[in-house]
Amino acid sequence: LFWNKIRKNDTFDVVKAALHRDRERYVFAGGGGLGFYGGGVRMGVERLLKAFDVDYVDVFHLFWLGRMSAFTDGVVKELVKLREEGLVHALGVSIHDRPRAGKLAVESPLDLLMIRYNAAHPGAEQDIFPRYAERRPITVAYTATSWGKLLRRPKGWDGPIMSPGQCYRFCLSSPHVDVVLCGADSTAHLTEDLAALQEGPLVEEEDAFVRRFGHAVHG
C-alpha cells in the first residue's frame, strides 16, 4: 500500500482499519514532511505513525528526489537512524533521474527505488538495471500505463492497442522489478488486472508487440 499524503477520507479510514486488523499482512509505504532536512524527515515519519496509529512504517520514501526532497548527509544520517530505531524498516526514494538512480542503487544505503518504467519509458533497462550487478535494491515500477497513454491509440497506429494487463505484465516480466503499482479505479478493473497477471511474463511475441506500441506512444 503506497500512501503519498495524509488525507482523511474513506480510503484513509479503510487503510487504517486494515493495518489495525492485520498489520503483518501489509507492506505500508509512505512519506512526507520536509525532505530537505533531517528534522523534517523525522517529522514526516512521526506524522505517519500518529495518523495511522502504527508502530512502524515498512518503507519510508523521500518523494520525487531532486525536486521535493534532498539527499544531503543530514537527511541520509536521519534516515539511517530512523531505520536503526525500528520506526522505519526500509528506506526508499521516488526518482525520475535514471542515471542518478543507478548511482544511488550502488552508492547509498537505500533499500528501495521507485522508478518510472513502462513500455513507453523503458530507459531503466540501460540506465539503472545494469548497476544491479553491483548492488540490488528492491524496485517498484510506477506509471505502468504511462498515465493511461498506453491504453489509447496513438496517432498513425492502426493495429491493436495494449490492455491494462499487458502494461502490468510488461513491468513484472523484468527480473529487476519486484512490485508494480496499480491505481485501478474500480473493483472490476482491479479484478481484471489481477486475472491478467495469472498469464505470467510476456512471451517473446507479446514483448515485441508492446515495445513497438510503447515506442509509437512515446513518439
Walk me through the structure.
With 219 residues, this protein is α/β, with parallel strands linked by helices. It has a 7-stranded parallel beta sheet with strand order 1-2-3-4-5-6-7, with helices on one face. β3, α3 and β4 form a beta-alpha-beta unit. α2 packs parallel to α3 and α6 packs across α7. The longest helix has 15 residues. The mean pLDDT is 94.
Give a brief description.
The protein is 41% helix and 14% strand. It has 219 residues and is α/β, with parallel strands linked by helices. α2 runs parallel beside α3 and α6 packs across α7.
User: How many whole angstroms does the radius of gyration measure?
Assistant: 18 Å
User: Main beta sheet: strand number and arrangement?
Assistant: 7 strands, parallel
Overall geometry comes to globular
Task: State the total count of DSSP E strands.
Answer: 7
The ordered string of helix (H) and strand (E) elements is EHEHEHEHEHEHEHH
Mean pLDDT score, rounded? 94
Low-confidence stretches: none
Q: Please state how the strands of the largest beta sheet are arranged side by side.
A: 1-2-3-4-5-6-7
Secondary structural class: alpha/beta
The helix count comes to: 8
Task: Report the span from N to C terminus.
Answer: 32 Å
Beta-strand residue percentage: 5-15%
Helix content: 40-55%
